[in-house]
Amino acid sequence: MKKQCERGLNYGVIGNCRSGALISNKGAIEWLCLPKFDSGSVFGKLMDEDKGGSFDILPENEADITQKYDWNTNILITRFSCKDGIFEVHDFMPRYKLDGGNYYSPPDVIRYFKHIEGAPSFRIRYDPRLEYATYDTRIDIYKSFVKAQTTKGDYDSMYLYSSMNISNVACRQLLTLTKDEFVLLSYNQKLLKQTVERSYTKLTRTKAYWLTWSERTTSFGKYNEAITRSALVLKLLSYQKTGAILAALTTSLPETIGEVRNWDYRFCWIRDASMVIKIMTSLDHYNLAHRYLRFITDLLPDKDERIQIMYGIDGQKKLTETTLDHLSGYCNSAPVRVGNAAYKQKQNDIYGILMDVIYQHFHLFSVSLEHSEELWTITRNMVRAVERNWQKPDKGIWEMRQNNKHFTFSKVLCWVAVDRAIKIASLLQQQDQVDEWVDLRDKIKKDILKKAWCKEKQSFTQAYGYDDLDASVLLMEFYGFLSGRDPQFVSTVKAIQGELEHNGLMFRYKNKDDFGEPSSAFTICSFWLVRALFMIGEEDLAKEKFDKLLTYSNHLGLFSEDLDFETKRLLGNFPQAYSHLALIDTAMLLSGGKLSKEELLLQIIH
């Protein structure tokens, strides 16, 4: 595990809104689940250096290896500058529109070997371990492909095709590159002959798709590169089939090395996904919002059905959590978990977060009568749920597995739910509902102002009756509960910064939870602090902190869930939707506003 732990999360991510892969800065595929995001891994070296399996490219001579994304795409380019020549590997998962309007996004990874100069030689270590390496994987070499398949347990298989000698590829024989070649990994056996020309066509069409998608992304006065890369990450974490948004691509990457705060994040959290949708619509990507709201309406057919905090990407409601005890875990940080028991939790903030997105949808779009009636029914149901639950304790935004409390953030988001419902009712000219709900909104706000305020700390606290501070309270301004210049909010920001900031990064909270005191920085909280500082008038300090935060990404501009306070090493599941949506929101705030097409053209020219 030593090499992996020293390297950290220096991975690039590729994907096609069906699945995704992590590729190390040395060009090795070390995490890939097929055919979907939440399937068993076929390469899982990320979870176990010895047992997990990977796809490595091993230059025969000394090589300088560099990595970048093809500009404004999710195509990853790893360049091998060797003593005997230079070549690049362009890694991607095909995604583009077909003539009928549907997307071509097969469960495939294509590694396009582009010859640059000389005659570089290398070996390929193709070592798949299907189904989380639970049992041995058998490799069979045929005339035109290599088949990997399980030997026990649930049957699974994968196919490899290549323009290079298929036996030499599979058996780690020396390969010499004198022209462009390809390797294709597919969950399905191919019906058509796979050629270099076919792979190159898929590469160019996928590149055109991502460039077109990025071109539609709103441009700003500053931080466009960081905004676009983060938007591309969020797009990758969307599941085309249902509209679900994943929290991250991985499972069980620890918040702190050697500890057990390891969770499976390959699911759709209502909170995370709704916040992603709000940000992406701000960047003019509306299709994600339409598909996500359809995902929600399909999940809630009954008027009294309880909204879960999270669902499977195909809408599964039961996400039983198990552990893979045969895997040692990332840097020996066991257990490796599949599934997530948090789906059973009660978190009252989800009503407000989802209602905020529904309000935005009504505000931005002309909605069909049928769809409006569906969303109006959900709106009224959620207000009823808030009426029943807002005075009850819950698990809170951080998913405490024990000890329900009256968390301030949950109360604020209950207020948000009713506030946005009132705005929706006004848009739909339902004045009777407006009159009925105003009293409830005012009652919740009065309760929060009275019970969440701590005179000694001059701050709103994590929960009623406690003096612990919590970074989530910084979102009071973001959701419109208090203005940025409200004296109580200004005081709260300064108190939270004073107590939770350490070495330029933020704790979520410092009080003990189910596993003791937290020991890593939660990335999104550092972005929240930047936003809050900006809104209370500390604009120069906010910009300084934000610029510093951007330097803590990995070599490709990607963020995980957590950061080590001392080394700034990325920790936790990766890439993390929560972190990237907060980056975009903060960058938009600090950027100086949107650019017109003319301003953007001038910026490019200069």
Automatic annotation (TrEMBL):
<dbReference type="InterPro" id="IPR011613">
    <property type="entry name" value="GH15-like"/>
</dbReference>
<dbReference type="InterPro" id="IPR045582">
    <property type="entry name" value="Trehalase-like_N"/>
</dbReference>
<dbReference type="Pfam" id="PF00723">
    <property type="entry name" value="Glyco_hydro_15"/>
</dbReference>
<feature type="domain" description="Trehalase-like N-terminal">
    <location>
        <begin position="13"/>
        <end position="151"/>
    </location>
</feature>
<dbReference type="Pfam" id="PF19291">
    <property type="entry name" value="TREH_N"/>
</dbReference>
<feature type="domain" description="GH15-like">
    <location>
        <begin position="221"/>
        <end position="533"/>
    </location>
</feature>
<protein>
    <submittedName>
        <fullName>Glucoamylase</fullName>
    </submittedName>
</protein>
<dbReference type="InterPro" id="IPR008928">
    <property type="entry name" value="6-hairpin_glycosidase_sf"/>
</dbReference>
<dbReference type="GO" id="GO:0004553">
    <property type="term" value="F:hydrolase activity, hydrolyzing O-glycosyl compounds"/>
</dbReference>
<dbReference type="GO" id="GO:0005975">
    <property type="term" value="P:carbohydrate metabolic process"/>
</dbReference>
<dbReference type="InterPro" id="IPR012341">
    <property type="entry name" value="6hp_glycosidase-like_sf"/>
</dbReference>
